[in-house]
Amino acid sequence: MTAPLERVLRAFLDDPAAPRYGYDLMKVAGLKSGTLYPMLGRLEDDRLVTSAWETPQQDGQRPRKYYQLTGEGIRVARLELAQVSASRQHAPGRRASPVPGSLG
Amino acid sequence: MRGERSLLRIGGTLIGLASRLLPGEIRDERSREWTAELPAILRDPDTRLTAHRVARMLGYAAGAVWGSALAAGGARGRLTAVMAVVVGLFTAEVLTLAVRGVLGAANAPGDWVNYCLIVGGLLYLAELRRVLARWIRQAAKPMEGVRDAVLDYGASFFPSWLLSLLLRAVGAVSSDLPGQAGAPGPPAPVPLLPAASAEQAIGLARDTAGRFYRTRLRPGYQIAEVDEFVARIEATLATGTRPGQAVTAADVQAATFGTRLGGYDEQVVDEALDYYAGALARLAPSPDSMTGPDTDSTDMTR
After folding, report:
1. Running DSSP on this structure, what letter comes out for residue B189?
2. Is A30 left (phi over 0), alpha (psi -120 to 50) or beta?
3. How far apart are CA B41 and CA B15, in angstroms?
4. B3 to chain A, closest Cα gap in Å
5. Nearest CA in chain A to B71
6. Residues B4-39: pLDDT tens digits?
7. What is the pLDDT of residues B95-140, one digit of tens each?
8. Does the CB of A85 have a partner CB in chain B at under 8 Å?
9. Which residue from A23, B168, B259, B278 lies 20 to 30 Å from A68 (Cα-Cα)?
10. Range from B41-45, B191-195, B245-249 carrying the lowest mean pLDDT
């Protein structure tokens, strides 16, 4: 899992029920918009994240779009983050010093 | 806030540019979403300094442009950005020389060097215009035409060693170069896994460029080796087992790959291979594979 993805999933899992705007996620995860939105798009394609438009408000502001983890998304995100922290406790990956050119 | 309206207009212009780079089906939605975020960033109560909020808002819009340009094709998008800068600098240099030629010809009408500079500059500009116009005419989408033209023009004008240096610098592979022999590029990721959760997990591991997330300055797995291996796994999963192509869960666990700078991120590939091994172990055993799925690798130790 990539570091930006990990930070986004952590931001979502802080409060899975809370609706998250793109800008909020950028602030919490410390990401640029150019990184965040393609990632949200992929998560949405994988049905791990769902999005909706907020109801229009009276003061003429445009409705913003917010994101939430789906039930499946919460499950997968917890699993993935647990795997990441588990693999960090054990040292580098098992194929750390491979024999060049030898395929399975 | 004073000047909010004109600031929002600048941001809106950038957003318009960004959304034009996106595919049609998500263009309107993204444009609406980004436009609605701009005033929210300008009025963000958590950021105290006005200048900070303005910078954030403009950075947000600029990031949207950058992200959309890169999303157009991963490493290829990065290469286009670098190539556009190189071609742009070269064009500026040629123009400067041509202007110097015009000034010099006005001052010293007899000096033939000035006329050479002028003619050379005009020929270069005419050629650039011709290439751009041809590619844009041929392309279904104008932005793609510009991209192809810049790539093609860069490849025809600059030596290949310089291009391969550039490619390395931006973390792109040499197969991104147009017109280079034997450059099929990595196969497109095809989601063929039967198990939904494994498919999703592997989808998570994928990043914008290529099949898996790539390292920059650290060594990673050889891309061609991993691509070939994963293609064999996917073929096995898609068709059941086929002699010569069949890969078993044990093969996946025993697989090793060579490394290079800017290869695939080892942890990402390992994780994806774990899921692949699990999916393979769930396949029905075939004559040329093991006798039983006794090596369910989902609980393998790392």
Report:
1. P
2. left
3. 14
4. 17
5. A38
6. 888 888 888 888 877 877 777 888 999 999 999 999
7. 888 888 888 888 888 788 888 888 998 998 888 888 878 777 776 6
8. no
9. B278
10. B191-195
- Quote the tokens at residue A45: 């394609």
Q: Are A68 and A20 in contact (CB under 8 A)?
A: yes
For B199, which residue in chain A has the nearest alpha carbon?
A46
Query: How large is the average pLDDT for residues A25-33?
Result: 89
The mean pLDDT of B236-255, rounded to a whole number, is 74
Contacts with B71 from chain A: Cβ below 8 Å: 38
**Which residue do the tokens 């290079």 mark?**
B260
Q: Identify the CA nearest to A22 among candidates A78, A82, A65.
A: A65
Confidence of residue B173 (pLDDT cuts 50, 70, 90): very low
Average pLDDT value for residue range B231-257: 76
Helix (H) / strand (E) element for A51: namely: strand A49-53
Q: Which of B302, B226, B300 is nearest to B262 (CA)?
A: B226
Q: Strand (E) positions, chain B?
A: 219-221, 259-261
Reply yes or no on whether the pLDDT at B240 is more than 70: no
Residue A42 CB-density burial (10 A; 0-12 exposed, 13-18 middle, 19+ buried) = middle
Q: And the tokens for A68?
A: 């939430």
Quick check: ipTM above 0.90? Answer: no
Q: Which residue has the tokens 């650039």?
A: B128
Q: What are phi and psi of B21, to 5 degrees?
A: -80, -10
Residue B259 has which token pair? 């490394």
Q: Which of A9, A10, A23 to mutate to test the interface with B (most CBs of B within 10 A)?
A: A23
Which pLDDT score is estimated for A43?
92
- Residue A25, judged by CB atoms within 10 A of its CB (0-12, 13-18, 19+), counts as buried
Query: Do residues B205 and B195 touch, judged by C-beta distance below 8 A?
Result: no
- Tokens 């490619």 map to which residue? B167
Q: Which has more pLDDT, A93 or B194?
A: A93
**What's the mean pLDDT when you consider all of chain B?**
71
What does the alpha-carbon distance between residue B127 and residue B138 come to, in Å, rounded to a whole number? 17
Residues 36-75 of A with CB under 8 A from B: 36-38, 41-42, 45-48, 61-65, 72
In the sheet that A20-21 helps form, which strands lie side by side, from edge to edge? Answer: A20-21, A65-69, A49-53
Contact A34 B34 (CB under 8 A): no
Question: 3-state class of B161 per DSSP?
Answer: helix
